[in-house]
Design the sequence.
């Protein structure tokens, strides 16, 4: 079945550092890919998405590119802030099947 | 505010008991998803309903059941509770757009089984 694998955390970085959180997926169809973020005490919220190969999703300085050849959707940010501390989830949704599958989440700590 | 409402926010109950978690989706959303989030298992998909019908099933235990009512709100019933059922339970709703399915999450119900 469909699955999402993302790097284990926690990831701890200093403010203004470069961030990469790896995500790879397995899908039988042609999925859409998402990154969700969960701030402390809150539910998940969509951060960015990409619906086809080579699409780049971006929001709040975060970016991820849909790479079909490597089945990956890595999350990047050039300069992280303390306010980016949260749990980040990679997810996929296979067209024709509305089910959304999430990775286990990566906790990110940014130190001032 | 995502527009998805979950009640109650917190629930403490004893082993062997039964509880009902409630979810009101965003206005107009037909799909409701239930997820369980625990520290060791991450975010696990439990079940999805679409316009009152069960659409997809994930890692949902037989002790758990759900339904979606005609007004589209949903309930997740957990019975014969065990300590290991302690977790955050999230509901999400969506309207499939044809290209992708963006889900909007409630703030969750934290269940503690003692």
Sequence:
């Amino acid at each position: 079945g469909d699955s999402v694998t993302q790097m284990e955390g926690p990831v701890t970085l200093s403010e203004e550092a470069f961030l990469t959180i790896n995500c790879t997926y397995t899908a039988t169809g042609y999925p859409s890919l998402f990154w969700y973020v969960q701030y402390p005490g809150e539910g998940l919220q969509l951060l960015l998405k990409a619906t086809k190969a080579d699409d780049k999703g971006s929001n709040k300085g975060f970016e991820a590119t849909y790479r079909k050849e490597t089945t990956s959707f890595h999350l990047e940010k050039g300069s992280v802030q303390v306010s980016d501390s949260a749990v980040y989830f990679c997810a996929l949704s296979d067209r024709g099947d509305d089910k959304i599958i999430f990775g286990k989440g990566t906790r990110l700590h940014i130190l001032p | 505010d995502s527009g998805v409402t979950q009640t109650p926010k917190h629930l403490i109950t004893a082993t062997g008991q039964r509880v009902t978690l409630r979810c009101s989706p965003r206005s107009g959303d037909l799909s409701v998803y239930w997820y369980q989030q625990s520290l060791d298992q991450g975010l696990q998909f439990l079940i999805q309903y679409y316009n009152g019908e069960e659409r997809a099933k994930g890692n949902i235990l037989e002790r758990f059941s759900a339904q979606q009512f005609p007004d589209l709100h949903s309930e997740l019933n957990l019975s014969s509770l065990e300590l290991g059922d302690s977790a955050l339970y999230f509901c999400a709703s969506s309207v499939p757009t044809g290209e992708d399915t963006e889900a909007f999450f409630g703030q969750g119900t934290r269940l503690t089984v003692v």
Q: What stands out?
A: The interface with chain A takes residues 2, 4, 31, 33, 35, 41-43, 45, 48, 50, 55-56, 58, 90, 92, 94, 96, 98-108 of chain B (CB under 8 Å). DSSP finds no helices and eleven strands in chain B.
